[in-house]
């Protein structure tokens, strides 16, 4: 039986596998696309490109919370809600997530 939670878990497992074998540049690309995909799900049918500002495209405080929760579930990286304001586009948030993911998964116990 598929539930929303099990599908998110499967997507997260596949994402972790892809990130584990990716170079730093590929990891950033993967995470940028992950941000865009999650935004498309939340803001559909609004098209989001890499440099689209989240707030200018209709992201609200409630949907920003939804976005950060989805991304945290998929990446296992703690994302403060303020990151949406500090990194307000898929390209910028993807870059932030790539750095945070690398720090969390560096093996030395570092956190983002």
TrEMBL record:
GO terms for biological process: antibiotic biosynthetic process. It comes from Streptomyces himastatinicus ATCC 53653. The keyword tRNA processing does not apply. GO terms for molecular function: phosphopantetheine binding. InterPro entries: ACP-like_sf (IPR036736), PKS_PP-bd (IPR020806), PP-bd_ACP (IPR009081). SUPFAM superfamilies: ACP-like. This is Putative phosphopantetheine attachment site. SMART domains: PKS_PP, PKS_PP_betabranch. Keywords: Phosphopantetheine, Phosphoprotein. Residues 25-101 form the Carrier domain.
